[in-house]
UniProtKB/TrEMBL annotation:
It comes from the Bacteria. Residues 42-335 form the Aminotransferase class V domain. Keywords: Aminotransferase, Pyridoxal phosphate, Transferase. Substrate binds at R355. PROSITE patterns: AA_TRANSFER_CLASS_5 (PS00595). The keyword Transferase applies. This is (S)-ureidoglycine--glyoxylate transaminase. GO terms for biological process: glycine biosynthetic process, by transamination of glyoxylate. GO terms for molecular function: alanine-glyoxylate transaminase activity; L-serine-pyruvate transaminase activity. CDD domains: AGAT_like. The lineage of its organism: Bacteria, Pseudomonadati, Pseudomonadota, Betaproteobacteria, Nitrosomonadales. SUPFAM superfamilies: PLP-dependent transferases (SSF53383). Its cofactor is pyridoxal 5'-phosphate. Belongs to the class-V pyridoxal-phosphate-dependent aminotransferase family.
Length: 405
């Protein structure tokens, strides 16, 4: 048998992806500056020049997380790795963990607790509603031996944002550690890790940070570090054990742990430099302004939001599909005719909603107008009565009445 026996029968050549406008729940459009940074020469992950950049990365992440935690760094892997890293380090078999579920990603937290041998105490809220802090306090009163409270700050499956400050204060009142998912919120809406008493936080590179997927920014408080150092049994994951990662991401040593994805880290560094240059408050304001303009346009089409205004994520717009409209066909035509991607509903919302992302580099005026024009065109093609041009005009009017500072 020769090597040719294993050659693919079809002709395979270099892959060139189509140019899309990504307005779904993630990933968002990667900024050209990030792509350029990722194309720079690869360095060894222990190269002293690279380790200097690592220190800058940690400092920039402390800025976006609004924390002074020394153990703040990007994990090599997607946001799901960041989530699992929190649970596998902070939950030991038999621990009671309060988990708030108001969408898909709260459910994944429950799965992590169970796989760590913990006992999940579930706070249930309706999809599209924020976590009810009173329910969190009620369950902690009944379970004074609970060790951790875990919740999703920005639930990507529904577009709702919960009151992280109040939940963090309640958890601290009952001497619980906290785990918070900021995969969709970081960079797009306020996150104040220290002020909100959050002990462990994780995010993803592919949403409001304008990077490709593959890295998970994370931060741990000193309370978590002390707890993990004093565990009586090993963390049930070699790769995610923060005791071992301290040797690589610590401030004084650079002990080999794994081969870090150097070029991906260049990209994250550049994206964080861009947020630093723009300023966090301006980034949050940009996402809010584009959300309001989108909403003004959607209202002319009679399309309403799933989430009450007080709890809506500006970067993840979940809206009801108009009655009688084939939501899948709309998404298909947007992709095929306009190379524009939006997201479908998940779980309880499957077939009922669209999820329109305005995150990071995707959150800009031209994308809002392009989407509204494309949506009007597709709806007209499907026989829906539309006042052609009204949606983009309403968005333009909002921008004219609300100029940037």
């Amino acid at each position: 048998m020769t090597t040719d026996s294993f050659r693919p029968k079809e002709k395979i050549s270099t892959f060139y992806p189509p140019q899309r406008t990504l307005l779904g729940p993630g990933p968002s459009d990667t900024h050209p500056r990030v792509l350029s940074a990722m194309a720079r020469p690869t360095l060894g992950h222990l190269d002293p020049v690279f380790t200097e950049m690592m220190e800058e990365l940690k400092s920039l992440l402390r800025y976006v997380f609004q924390t002074k935690n020394l153990l703040t760094f990007p994990v090599s892997g997607p946001g799901s790795i960041g989530m699992e890293m929190c649970f596998v380090n902070m939950v030991v078999p038999g621990d009671k963990v309060v988990v708030c579920r108001n969408g898909v990603f709260g459910g994944r937290m429950i799965e992590n607790v169970e796989r760590c041998g913990g006992i999940p105490l579930v706070v249930e809220d309706k999809w599209g509603d924020p976590v009810d802090p009173q329910k969190v306090e009620d369950i902690l009163k009944k379970n004074p031996d609970a060790k951790v409270v875990a919740f999703v700050h920005a639930e990507t499956s529904t577009g709702v944002q919960s009151d992280a400050k109040t939940i963090g204060q309640i958890a601290r009142k009952y001497n619980c550690l906290t785990i918070m998912d900021t995969v969709t919120s970081l960079g797009g809406t306020p996150v104040y890790m220290d002020e909100w008493d959050i002990d462990a936080i994780y995010s993803g590179s592919q949403k409001c940070l304008s990077c490709p997927p593959g890295l998970s920014p994370i931060s741990f408080s000193e309370r978590v570090v002390d707890m993990v150092k004093n565990r009586t049994e090993k963390v049930h994951s070699w790769f995610m054990d923060i005791n071992l990662l301290l040797g690589y991401w610590g401030s004084t040593t650079r002990t080999y742990h794994h081969t870090a994805p150097t070029n991906s880290l260049y990209g994250l560094h550049e994206s964080l430099v861009m947020i630093y240059e723009e300023g966090l408050e301006r980034s949050w304001a940009r996402h809010q302004r584009n959300h309001e303009a989108l909403k003004a346009g959607l209202e002319t089409l009679g399309i309403g939001y799933v989430v009450d205004a007080a709890y809506r994520l500006p970067q993840l717009n979940s809206v009801h599909v108009p009655a009688g409209v084939d939501e899948k066909e709309v998404r298909r035509k947007l992709l095929n005719d306009f190379s524009l991607e939006i997201g479908a509903g998940l779980g309880d919302f499957a077939g009922k909603i669209w999820r329109i992302g305005l995150m990071g580099n995707s959150s800009k005026l031209e994308n809002v107008i392009f989407f509204l024009e494309a949506l009007e065109h597709v709806l007209t093609d499907l026989g829906v009565q539309v006042n052609k041009g009204a949606a983009p005009s309403a968005a333009h009017q909002y921008y004219a009445n609300n100029p940037t500072a």
